[in-house]
Design goal:
By secondary structure, the protein is of the alpha/beta class. It contains eight helices and eight strands, in the order ββααβαβαβααβαβαβ. The protein binds iron/sulfur cluster.
């Protein structure tokens, strides 16, 4: 694992839990609205944080945090992710994984091994290639098929999970959100996250996009509830 960044204490990365959030470098997507583009495009600009350092860091906080959130970048690009998580779990920490869903084999190993406690999987757009290619910055159709495999895998598992979409006006209309909700009909949870414009988006043209209003997000989540009862926005 190549960990580049740690947020010591986060109350927002896993609802109801206090976690430390670890960020890996590199990603196989190029979402134009990505806030962590520096970790995706220029990972060598950041020093690696050693396993020893992370272990010491976590053990020092054992009484204050429930677990970790592994984010990035895309954690499932690392073949040693299951072994890494096992080491953390053995120390008594809960584990949440943030993923773009492009590695169903890794997810299956994690699910079968009971290694993780929660998955938050991004669904970048409606599940047709043109829309997904635009929202995730991809050219390879296989990646979308792998995302679909991961959705199926997670929905057929017993794990607690959420699917989530960062809603960006240039990429998502009401129709897009309804199409996604239909695709994951019956899922345990679907969260709409409002896009926050910042200087740190991967594509500079996204820095000034005006996000949807809270009212619009509320309206979209109400409509999506027809397919996923536990749908809300944040
Ligand atoms: S937002 Fe997209 S490009 Fe950025 S880390 Fe997540 S999946 Fe990768």
């Amino acid at each position: 694992m190549i960990i580049k960044r740690i947020i010591e204490t986060s109350l927002i990365d896993w609802e109801g839990k206090v976690v430390s959030t670890l960020y890996v470098s590199s990603c196989n997507f190029r979402c134009p609205f990505c806030y962590n583009y520096d970790l995706v495009l220029n990972p060598d600009n950041f020093p690696n944080i050693s396993s020893k350092e992370i272990n010491n860091f976590l053990l020092e906080r054992k009484d204050f945090i429930d677990g970790i959130c592994m984010s990035g970048g895309e954690p499932t690009l690392y073949p040693d992710l299951p072994a890494y998580f096992k080491g953390i779990k053995e120390k008594g920490f809960l584990i949440k994984l943030d993923t773009n869903g492009t590695n169903p084999e890794s997810l299956e190993e994690l699910l079968n091994g009971g290694i993780i406690d929660y998955i938050a999987m991004d669904i970048k757009s409606s599940l047709n290639f043109n829309d997904y290619a635009r929202a995730a910055g991809i050219k390879d159709k296989i990646l979308l098929e792998r995302v679909k495999d991961s959705i199926k895998l997670i929905m057929n598992s017993q794990i607690e999970y959420e699917f989530r979409t960062t809603v960006v006006p240039l990429l998502h209309t009401e129709e897009t959100i309804i199409e996604i909700a239909k695709y994951i009909s019956g899922a345990k949870k679907y969260v709409l996250q409002n896009f926050i414009p910042s200087e740190n988006t991967l594509e500079s043209s996204f820095q000034k996009i005006k996000p949807y209003s809270s009212e619009k997000l509320a309206e979209l989540s109400e409509k999506a509830k027809k397919y996923v009862a536990n749908c809300y926005y944040r």
